[in-house]
Amino acid sequence: MSWIVASLISALFLGFYDLSKKHALRDNAVLPVLFVGTLCGAAVWLVLLVAGIAAPDVVPAAFVPEPLTAAQHGLVFLKSVIVAASWAFTYWHQAPAALAGCAHSRHRPALDTLRRADCVG
Length: 121
Fold this sequence. Notes:
The protein has 121 residues and is an all-alpha fold. It is built from five helices and no strands. The radius of gyration is 17 Å and the shape is globular.
């Protein structure tokens, strides 16, 4: 698959994700929505992880994770805290615009990201 097709598919799913997130946050608290969204994502990966252990030939190698060290687990935890803080600050409208913009720049079109000089680097 060419990288252009992969990028378009990724953009499509990120769009669905953003629409779903905004719909879920309507009249709901931020942290419970974030928690349930994380549980749903973890459930999908848990199924793939268990299937990869039970029948390694069924799951493509790209979906079989390598074991993580304690330091790598710490980095994953740190990323989780950063994402949770980003969600909370963005949806409670308390974060500076530069922080919220940089934290979510991967969800924006490339030209929008390039316009943000404070996000480069």
